[in-house]
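Re: the request from the purification team.
They wanted to know what the chain is likely to look like in 3D before they choose a buffer screen. I agreed to run a prediction and write the result into the notebook, where they can find it.
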Amino acid sequence: MSDNELGTFLRTRREAVTPAEVGLPTGPRRRTPGLRRAELATLAGISVEYLTRLEQGRDHNPSAQVLAALADALRLAVHDRILLRRLAKESGDEAVLCSAGMTPAHTVRPTVQALLDRLEPAPAVLLNPLGDILAYTTGYERLAAPLGLLDGAHPSILRYVFTDERARTAFPDWDRVADEQVAAFRHEVPSSDPHVVALIDELTITAGAPFADRMAAAPVMPRSAGADLVAHPEVGRLRLAHETLALPNDGQRLIVHLPADDATADALDRLNGRRPGALRAVNS
């Protein structure tokens, strides 16, 4: 294997992107159909000299912001952004990558699980401060699984919203949902924690500007209650009210969803295979 896989990746992706794809004029005297270094550097907002060092393997520690800018400029898909992040970590200083903070809890106390059980058939989910999904009701599973929200061994609502293309279809008001997810994340976690820093770096690269710009904006208080629209592939459009209950001793939050109108109540009953009236609409 090459000892400069990061540089090789950047160079080959640069050469595979045509000027027309990024809104640049083609020009009559190009030796290659791909982007020149100067063009990519300008699009990413970095110097040509720095891009040259990265491609030649003379710099092994690009920041998450630089990688995100390059990924945005190259129009990388999510899977290529994940690969870019992995190559950067492998080429960098391993000592920098070691976390010293406490691993976010993934355990659920029996009394919290019992509370979830008693919330059936309402869709309810338990999250840790990083947005990892720890536990949920069967009502939530029937709501969220068809959206792809529970895919993978360690589902995360923050990663889903920002890196899964299905999220923009699932949430018609995606921009507001994304704003609220970042607001909750920034409110819940200390910015100095190594696990938080690692997640911010990951999403800065994999999600690019939609995440990075929100993190750079002035912080706002997250809403503890509200209503969201969900476009469900099985029962159609849903309007769901939600309440967030903080569990400060566990560093977790419980989000309970309820139908915000009669049509949503009927749809959730069909989704859960229950007779009409199992869940009643609430005014939000």
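For the purification team: Residues 94-100 have pLDDT under 50 and may be disordered.
Please add any questions underneath this entry.
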